[in-house]
Design a protein that fits this description.
The chain is α+β, with helices and mostly antiparallel strands. It is built from 10 helices and 11 strands.
Length: 281
Protein backbone atom coordinates (compact mmCIF):
# COMPACT_ATOMS: atom_id res chain seq x y z
CA UNK A 1 0.00 0.00 0.00
CA UNK A 2 1.46 3.32 -1.10
CA UNK A 3 5.01 2.02 -1.40
CA UNK A 4 4.94 -0.05 1.79
CA UNK A 5 6.37 -3.54 1.87
CA UNK A 6 3.93 -6.26 0.85
CA UNK A 7 3.51 -7.34 4.48
CA UNK A 8 2.95 -3.81 5.73
CA UNK A 9 -0.45 -2.19 5.74
CA UNK A 10 -2.07 0.85 7.28
CA UNK A 11 -5.36 2.69 7.26
CA UNK A 12 -5.64 6.21 8.65
CA UNK A 13 -9.23 7.45 8.75
CA UNK A 14 -11.97 9.32 10.51
CA UNK A 15 -15.48 8.28 11.55
CA UNK A 16 -18.08 11.02 11.29
CA UNK A 17 -19.61 10.06 14.66
CA UNK A 18 -16.27 10.71 16.42
CA UNK A 19 -15.46 14.33 15.52
CA UNK A 20 -11.97 15.46 16.44
CA UNK A 21 -10.61 11.90 16.56
CA UNK A 22 -8.24 10.29 14.05
CA UNK A 23 -8.14 6.50 13.77
CA UNK A 24 -5.33 4.21 12.64
CA UNK A 25 -4.94 0.50 12.18
CA UNK A 26 -1.51 -0.68 10.99
CA UNK A 27 1.09 -3.40 10.73
CA UNK A 28 4.65 -2.18 10.19
CA UNK A 29 7.87 -4.15 9.87
CA UNK A 30 10.50 -1.91 8.33
CA UNK A 31 8.62 1.34 8.87
CA UNK A 32 10.43 4.15 10.68
CA UNK A 33 8.68 7.26 11.94
CA UNK A 34 11.00 10.27 12.03
CA UNK A 35 10.91 12.70 14.95
CA UNK A 36 7.58 14.49 14.82
CA UNK A 37 4.68 15.74 16.90
CA UNK A 38 0.90 15.49 16.85
CA UNK A 39 -1.66 18.14 17.63
CA UNK A 40 -3.79 15.40 19.19
CA UNK A 41 -3.06 12.76 21.84
CA UNK A 42 -1.62 9.44 20.68
CA UNK A 43 -3.18 6.32 22.22
CA UNK A 44 -1.61 3.36 20.42
CA UNK A 45 -2.67 -0.13 21.51
CA UNK A 46 -0.10 -2.79 20.60
CA UNK A 47 -1.67 -6.09 19.49
CA UNK A 48 1.46 -7.93 18.32
CA UNK A 49 5.21 -7.38 18.32
CA UNK A 50 7.05 -4.43 19.88
CA UNK A 51 7.22 -0.74 19.05
CA UNK A 52 10.21 1.36 20.11
CA UNK A 53 9.84 5.12 20.22
CA UNK A 54 12.23 7.81 21.40
CA UNK A 55 10.44 10.08 23.86
CA UNK A 56 11.85 12.73 26.18
CA UNK A 57 15.45 11.58 25.87
CA UNK A 58 15.02 7.81 26.11
CA UNK A 59 13.87 4.83 24.05
CA UNK A 60 10.51 3.47 25.20
CA UNK A 61 9.37 -0.11 24.48
CA UNK A 62 5.69 -0.98 24.06
CA UNK A 63 4.97 -4.69 23.58
CA UNK A 64 1.74 -6.58 22.94
CA UNK A 65 -0.77 -5.73 25.67
CA UNK A 66 0.71 -2.28 26.26
CA UNK A 67 -0.15 1.21 25.07
CA UNK A 68 2.17 3.88 23.73
CA UNK A 69 0.85 7.21 25.05
CA UNK A 70 2.10 10.56 23.75
CA UNK A 71 0.79 13.99 24.71
CA UNK A 72 0.14 16.69 22.09
CA UNK A 73 3.13 18.62 20.74
CA UNK A 74 5.60 16.11 22.22
CA UNK A 75 8.42 15.07 19.84
CA UNK A 76 8.78 11.31 19.36
CA UNK A 77 9.83 8.70 16.81
CA UNK A 78 8.71 5.12 16.09
CA UNK A 79 10.14 1.84 14.78
CA UNK A 80 9.94 -1.91 15.19
CA UNK A 81 11.55 -3.40 18.27
CA UNK A 82 11.59 -6.97 16.94
CA UNK A 83 12.22 -8.39 13.44
CA UNK A 84 8.55 -9.22 12.89
CA UNK A 85 7.58 -5.59 13.50
CA UNK A 86 4.47 -4.48 15.35
CA UNK A 87 0.74 -4.44 14.80
CA UNK A 88 -1.47 -1.91 16.53
CA UNK A 89 -4.59 0.18 16.55
CA UNK A 90 -4.56 3.81 17.58
CA UNK A 91 -6.96 6.62 18.39
CA UNK A 92 -5.91 10.26 18.34
CA UNK A 93 -8.42 12.29 20.39
CA UNK A 94 -8.20 16.07 20.37
CA UNK A 95 -6.97 17.94 23.47
CA UNK A 96 -10.45 19.45 23.79
CA UNK A 97 -12.13 16.04 23.92
CA UNK A 98 -9.63 14.67 26.46
CA UNK A 99 -10.09 17.78 28.63
CA UNK A 100 -13.88 17.34 28.47
CA UNK A 101 -13.63 13.68 29.51
CA UNK A 102 -11.12 14.47 32.28
CA UNK A 103 -13.34 17.19 33.74
CA UNK A 104 -16.36 14.90 33.80
CA UNK A 105 -14.84 11.64 35.01
CA UNK A 106 -11.55 12.29 36.82
CA UNK A 107 -10.05 14.52 39.50
CA UNK A 108 -7.32 15.83 37.17
CA UNK A 109 -7.23 19.61 37.26
CA UNK A 110 -5.42 21.88 34.83
CA UNK A 111 -4.45 20.62 31.39
CA UNK A 112 -4.77 16.80 31.45
CA UNK A 113 -2.18 14.50 29.96
CA UNK A 114 -0.45 11.15 30.36
CA UNK A 115 2.34 10.83 32.90
CA UNK A 116 4.16 7.74 31.60
CA UNK A 117 4.66 7.02 27.86
CA UNK A 118 4.06 3.25 28.16
CA UNK A 119 1.30 1.56 30.14
CA UNK A 120 0.83 -2.21 30.36
CA UNK A 121 -2.94 -2.66 30.35
CA UNK A 122 -4.41 -5.40 28.11
CA UNK A 123 -7.93 -4.30 29.03
CA UNK A 124 -7.38 -0.77 27.68
CA UNK A 125 -5.72 -2.27 24.59
CA UNK A 126 -8.90 -4.27 23.92
CA UNK A 127 -11.02 -1.16 24.43
CA UNK A 128 -9.06 0.75 21.78
CA UNK A 129 -9.44 -2.07 19.27
CA UNK A 130 -13.15 -2.25 20.06
CA UNK A 131 -13.45 1.48 19.26
CA UNK A 132 -11.90 0.83 15.85
CA UNK A 133 -14.17 -2.15 15.23
CA UNK A 134 -17.26 -0.15 16.18
CA UNK A 135 -16.18 2.63 13.81
CA UNK A 136 -15.69 0.07 11.02
CA UNK A 137 -19.19 -1.28 11.64
CA UNK A 138 -20.77 2.18 11.78
CA UNK A 139 -21.88 1.69 15.39
CA UNK A 140 -21.80 5.31 16.60
CA UNK A 141 -23.12 4.63 20.09
CA UNK A 142 -20.55 1.92 20.78
CA UNK A 143 -17.63 3.81 19.26
CA UNK A 144 -18.31 6.98 21.26
CA UNK A 145 -19.01 5.07 24.49
CA UNK A 146 -15.93 2.83 24.27
CA UNK A 147 -13.65 5.76 23.40
CA UNK A 148 -14.79 7.69 26.46
CA UNK A 149 -14.41 4.62 28.68
CA UNK A 150 -10.89 4.02 27.33
CA UNK A 151 -9.75 7.61 27.80
CA UNK A 152 -11.25 7.74 31.30
CA UNK A 153 -9.46 4.53 32.29
CA UNK A 154 -6.11 5.73 30.93
CA UNK A 155 -6.42 9.09 32.69
CA UNK A 156 -7.31 7.41 36.00
CA UNK A 157 -4.40 4.97 35.70
CA UNK A 158 -1.85 7.30 34.17
CA UNK A 159 -3.17 10.85 34.08
CA UNK A 160 -2.06 14.10 35.60
CA UNK A 161 -1.94 17.82 35.03
CA UNK A 162 0.63 18.79 32.42
CA UNK A 163 3.13 21.48 33.41
CA UNK A 164 2.56 24.72 31.55
CA UNK A 165 5.49 25.60 29.31
CA UNK A 166 6.38 29.21 30.06
CA UNK A 167 9.16 30.59 27.92
CA UNK A 168 10.95 33.29 29.91
CA UNK A 169 14.65 33.04 29.04
CA UNK A 170 16.14 35.26 26.35
CA UNK A 171 17.08 32.20 24.30
CA UNK A 172 13.58 30.77 24.67
CA UNK A 173 12.00 33.99 23.46
CA UNK A 174 14.31 33.97 20.43
CA UNK A 175 13.20 30.40 19.66
CA UNK A 176 9.55 31.45 19.81
CA UNK A 177 10.25 34.33 17.42
CA UNK A 178 12.13 31.96 15.10
CA UNK A 179 9.14 29.63 15.03
CA UNK A 180 6.86 32.54 14.15
CA UNK A 181 9.16 33.50 11.26
CA UNK A 182 9.23 29.92 9.96
CA UNK A 183 5.44 29.64 10.19
CA UNK A 184 5.08 32.83 8.19
CA UNK A 185 7.69 31.87 5.60
CA UNK A 186 7.02 28.15 5.38
CA UNK A 187 7.21 27.97 1.59
CA UNK A 188 10.42 30.05 1.38
CA UNK A 189 12.24 29.77 4.72
CA UNK A 190 15.51 31.58 5.43
CA UNK A 191 18.79 29.78 6.07
CA UNK A 192 19.79 29.23 9.69
CA UNK A 193 22.42 31.96 9.33
CA UNK A 194 19.93 34.45 7.92
CA UNK A 195 17.29 33.57 10.50
CA UNK A 196 19.81 34.06 13.31
CA UNK A 197 20.98 37.38 11.87
CA UNK A 198 17.40 38.63 11.59
CA UNK A 199 16.89 37.75 15.27
CA UNK A 200 20.21 39.29 16.34
CA UNK A 201 21.77 36.04 17.54
CA UNK A 202 24.25 33.45 16.29
CA UNK A 203 23.32 30.29 14.34
CA UNK A 204 24.46 27.90 17.07
CA UNK A 205 22.83 29.91 19.85
CA UNK A 206 19.56 29.82 17.89
CA UNK A 207 19.95 26.09 17.23
CA UNK A 208 20.50 25.35 20.95
CA UNK A 209 17.58 27.53 22.04
CA UNK A 210 15.21 26.04 19.47
CA UNK A 211 16.11 22.49 20.51
CA UNK A 212 15.60 23.36 24.17
CA UNK A 213 12.11 24.77 23.58
CA UNK A 214 10.75 22.53 20.82
CA UNK A 215 12.74 19.31 21.19
CA UNK A 216 14.09 19.33 17.63
CA UNK A 217 16.20 21.58 15.38
CA UNK A 218 14.46 24.19 13.19
CA UNK A 219 14.69 22.21 9.94
CA UNK A 220 13.08 19.14 11.54
CA UNK A 221 10.37 21.30 13.12
CA UNK A 222 9.73 22.93 9.73
CA UNK A 223 9.19 19.58 8.00
CA UNK A 224 6.79 18.56 10.78
CA UNK A 225 4.92 21.88 10.48
CA UNK A 226 4.70 21.52 6.69
CA UNK A 227 3.12 18.09 7.04
CA UNK A 228 0.65 19.44 9.62
CA UNK A 229 -0.38 22.22 7.26
CA UNK A 230 -0.56 19.81 4.33
CA UNK A 231 -2.97 17.65 6.36
CA UNK A 232 -5.28 20.60 6.84
CA UNK A 233 -5.13 21.39 3.11
CA UNK A 234 -5.86 17.76 2.20
CA UNK A 235 -8.79 17.79 4.65
CA UNK A 236 -10.10 20.85 2.79
CA UNK A 237 -9.94 19.03 -0.55
CA UNK A 238 -6.70 20.50 -1.93
CA UNK A 239 -4.86 18.00 -4.15
CA UNK A 240 -1.62 16.48 -2.82
CA UNK A 241 0.36 18.08 -5.66
CA UNK A 242 -0.98 21.55 -4.86
CA UNK A 243 -0.62 21.06 -1.12
CA UNK A 244 3.03 20.11 -1.60
CA UNK A 245 3.79 23.41 -3.33
CA UNK A 246 1.75 25.53 -0.90
CA UNK A 247 3.65 24.27 2.15
CA UNK A 248 7.07 24.48 0.51
CA UNK A 249 7.97 21.00 -0.69
CA UNK A 250 9.59 21.04 -4.13
CA UNK A 251 7.13 18.51 -5.56
CA UNK A 252 4.58 15.85 -4.60
CA UNK A 253 7.14 13.01 -4.17
CA UNK A 254 8.81 15.06 -1.41
CA UNK A 255 5.44 15.50 0.32
CA UNK A 256 4.70 11.79 -0.15
CA UNK A 257 7.96 10.77 1.53
CA UNK A 258 7.75 13.11 4.51
CA UNK A 259 4.00 12.63 4.98
CA UNK A 260 4.32 8.84 5.12
CA UNK A 261 7.28 9.06 7.54
CA UNK A 262 5.20 11.17 9.95
CA UNK A 263 1.55 10.17 9.42
CA UNK A 264 2.11 6.53 8.44
CA UNK A 265 0.24 6.54 5.11
CA UNK A 266 0.75 8.46 1.83
CA UNK A 267 -1.21 11.71 1.36
CA UNK A 268 -3.38 10.26 -1.42
CA UNK A 269 -4.59 7.38 0.77
CA UNK A 270 -5.08 9.79 3.68
CA UNK A 271 -7.24 12.11 1.59
CA UNK A 272 -9.34 9.29 0.09
CA UNK A 273 -10.35 8.18 3.59
CA UNK A 274 -11.28 11.76 4.50
CA UNK A 275 -13.40 12.05 1.35
CA UNK A 276 -15.17 8.82 2.24
CA UNK A 277 -16.22 10.32 5.59
CA UNK A 278 -17.53 13.46 3.91
CA UNK A 279 -19.45 11.42 1.34
CA UNK A 280 -21.19 9.49 4.13
CA UNK A 281 -22.46 12.64 5.87
Amino acid sequence: MGGMGSRERARHWRYAALPGVDLLRARYIEKTFVRHTHEHFVIAAIAEGVEVFHHRGADQYAAAGALALVNPDTPHTGRAGVPEGWQYGAVYPSPELVAEIAAETTSVRGTPGFVRPVLDDPYAVRLVHQVLLAADEGNALAADTLLRVAVTRLLRLNGGAMPQREVRTAGGLVAVRAREVLEGRMAEPPSLEQLAADLDTSPFALLRAFRDVYGMPPHTWLTDARVRRARRLLDAGVSPAEAALVVGFTDQPHLNRHFARIIGVPPGAYQRERKNVQDLR
